[in-house]
């Protein structure tokens, strides 16, 4: 009889039991840099520490950073930040859309092998930091997948097969969810419960949300943000609709702070808003019990894997 390894969440300070993840911001960023967000970089270690402390003070226990390779993750700083603030942190490997990189750096990655890079960052560490990633982040396009998305998702599936790591997907404005599932779970045979779809709230087509949940994927609702203010208010309705259909066990919640001005310590909603704003609103929509499950048990299940 084959017994598989116990499921663990891979944090920057080591592997932990999923139950120890506690109240989790399942999709956020401490550090982020992209040519697409000039002048808005999340780059300050001090601001990151203050934001984590504010999240901790609001009752938060853990944060999953979805910043992928080459976007200023500052992996080497994450262990000290986690130690100093008492907030558990999970880091990511993976690759975002091509627009976030220079053509030269993408060429280098093609030459060195993307799946190999992902596996190395998941099992040995990011750069020379010794900090191991706990998920693979990739991205789709607007209502479709281009060659870059197919390349990165194929590498993600390969790295998933080698390590067991979950795959978290940025859906561009919440679209192309079914294309992503067709590719990852159809063609590339990744188990649907190992795929986390982000940003569906930016495209509040409830029928589509139901299809993605029915397929077995996890749905990560995130925000709010100024850019997505027009759809953010519909999130509680989407969550309630999915919960009513019996999909409450595959819903995740995150803050997705992507700019310096969005941090709570800079006057934005930031990470504490998940617990001070989103949580009470969802408690009204689906009750306290399910809201708590989404913030704790669901996150543990999403990021807890039997690492290979
Ligand atoms: Zn994000």
From TrEMBL:
Organism: Streptomyces anatolicus
Family indicated by similarity: Belongs to the metallo-dependent hydrolases superfamily. Phosphotriesterase family.
SUPFAM superfamilies: Metallo-dependent hydrolases
Top-level taxon of the source organism: Bacteria
Name assigned to this protein: Phosphotriesterase
Residue numbers carrying N6-carboxylysine: 137
InterPro entries, alphabetized: Metal_Hydrolase, Phosphotriesterase
Gene3D superfamilies: Metal-dependent hydrolases (3.20.20.140)
Record keywords, A-Z: Hydrolase, Metal-binding
């Amino acid at each position: 009889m084959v017994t598989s390894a116990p499921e663990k969440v891979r944090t920057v300070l080591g592997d932990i039991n999923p139950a120890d993840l506690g109240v989790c911001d399942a999709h956020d960023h401490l550090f982020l840099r992209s040519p697409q967000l000039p002048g808005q970089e999340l780059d300050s270690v001090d601001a990151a520490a203050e934001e984590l402390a504010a999240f901790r003070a609001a009752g938060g226990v853990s944060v999953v950073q979805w910043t992928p390779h080459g976007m200023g993750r500052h992996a080497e700083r994450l262990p000290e930040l986690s130690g100093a603030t008492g907030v558990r942190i999970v880091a990511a490997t993976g690759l975002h859309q091509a627009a976030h990189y220079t053509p030269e750096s993408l060429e280098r990655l093609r030459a060195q092998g993307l799946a190999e890079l992902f596996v190395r960052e998941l099992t040995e560490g990011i750069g020379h930091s010794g900090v191991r990633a706990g998920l693979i982040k990739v991205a789709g396009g607007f209502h479709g997948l281009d060659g870059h998305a197919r390349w990165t998702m194929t590498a993600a599936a390969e790295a998933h097969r080698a390590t067991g790591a979950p795959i978290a997907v940025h859906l561009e404005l919440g679209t192309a969810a079914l294309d992503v599932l067709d590719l990852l779970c159809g063609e590339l045979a990744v188990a649907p419960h190992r795929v986390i779809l982000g940003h569906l709230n930016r495209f509040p087509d409830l029928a589509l949300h139901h299809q993605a949940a029915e397929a077995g994927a996890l749905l990560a609702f995130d925000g709010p943000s100024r850019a997505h203010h027009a759809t953010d208010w519909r999130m509680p309705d989407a969550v309630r609709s999915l919960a009513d259909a019996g999909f409450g066990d595959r819903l995740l919640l995150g803050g997705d702070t992507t700019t310096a001005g969005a941090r709570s310590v800079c006057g934005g909603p930031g990470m504490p808003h998940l617990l001070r704003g989103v949580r009470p609103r969802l408690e009204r929509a689906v009750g306290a019990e399910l809201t708590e499950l989404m913030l704790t048990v669901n996150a543990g299940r999403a990021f807890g894997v039997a690492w290979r």
